Amino acid sequence: MKHDTIIVGGxxxxxxxxxxxxxxxxxxxxxxxxDDDARASHGNFGLVWIQGKGVSAPHYASWSRRxxxxxGAYAGGLFEEAGVDVSxxxxxxxxxxxxxxxxxAYVSELSGLRSALGGDYPFDVLEHETLKTYVPEIGPKVxxxxxxxxxxxxxxxxxxxxxxxxxRQRGGTLITSLRVVDVVAHDxxxxxxxxxxxxxxxxxxxxAAGLGALELGxxxxxxxxxxxxxxxxxITEKLPHFLRYPSGTLRQVNEGGVQIGASKAEVGMDDTEDxxxxxxxAKQAVDVFPHLANVKLVxxxxxxxxxxxxxxxxxxxxxxxxxxxxxxxxxxITLSAAHAEVLPDWILAKNIAPDLSQFGEGRFDx
Length: 366
Ligand SMILES: Cc1cc2nc3c(=O)[nH]c(=O)nc-3n(C[C@H](O)[C@H](O)[C@H](O)COP(=O)(O)OP(=O)(O)OC[C@H]3O[C@@H](n4cnc5c(N)ncnc54)[C@H](O)[C@@H]3O)c2cc1C
Hints:
Helix content is 28%, strand content 25%. It is of the alpha+beta class. It folds into 3 domains: 3-51 and 157-225 and 310-364, FAD/NAD(P)-binding domain (3-Layer(bba) Sandwich); 93-148, no CATH class; 226-308, 2-Layer Sandwich (D-Amino Acid Oxidase, Chain A, domain 2), CATH 3.30.9.10. β10 and β11 form a beta hairpin. The longest helix has 25 residues, at 58-82. It is globular. The N and C termini lie far apart (43 Å). The model has no long low-confidence stretch (mean pLDDT 97). Flavin-adenine dinucleotide binds at residues 8-14, 31-33, 37-41, 43-47, 49, 179-180, 208-210, 212, 216, 231, 233, 261-262, 303-306, 328-334.
């Protein structure tokens, strides 16, 4: 059977796009690879995060904010359709600082971004005593923080589950644990060849294979300017809820554990943890919340970010084949709502689609 759109990759990006295309009435098949693939969607931090994003790229800040604003209705819709609560909380977020100079540098970056956005970028700088009224558990090393209502978090594994159910319920086909080993372009149309030799024909194709795009993308005419970047994350035993506001490195998950992360390391495709990084993450967490020193860590893991050269998403139509698009990003949880609710119009080249040309691969041309 020929499908309207083949989506290569069933992580949060591929599933969000699939769900959005199905809502537009498209027929979709999602082809997802092997269990030993790098899968950022299974190892991320779960933030729907805005502050600090796009300090040198206001269009990225706006796109992220647009997605965050869509998140409430999006999570509600997924709950209605899939019966899965993704535990969205958008009560705001706080970045904590233990060094005055780092806080000042951050505030001046955010102030620059606020000017670039015409003043529409609300945030509050909180000194230690004021911050304590928000989060009484902060320790004496915390000199201050930045609060904004724009930030939030979800349970990212529940998001994957909700999307998987919703895609199937809307009639999408999902083939898992089988890699696409080749793609043949007929122009118009594509055939994806699976590892077991099966051939899947489709009119359009979205390459949303995370780091797997490095193998398939060039053939479709994409530059694929991405690399792996390792992040390690820790989680504590379940604690009574105390942390109302997530930060970029600390959040209390809906089940009660405090998640601590995430490191950044350029180590290629290596997703193994190491004690030095774990110890450093734990120390930074205890600097902010001293009571965590008495809490057990129950798990740690490493996962690989899908990172472009400037950290921004890549939305690129193939220069070689009509109806092939490349979609990838580092913030797939934050952008999931936009990828489901807005990006499908761009994929389908509708005239109501947003202009995403600033996110194209051309920005990397010298
Ligand atoms: C430590 C860490 C923390 C993060 N924290 C956050 C956060 O707080 N907030 C946020 O918004 N984002 C966060 N991210 C980023 C976010 O997780 C990613 O942007 C997102 O998961 C990328 O999703 P993806 O679907 O593109 O890639 P992946 O999740 O890697 O999925 C790609 C899929 O494609 C499949 N695939 C690959 N090759 C093939 C092939 N040949 N054929 C078929 N299928 C194939 C793979 O099996 C995989 O399932 C974090 C990432 C990491 C690593």
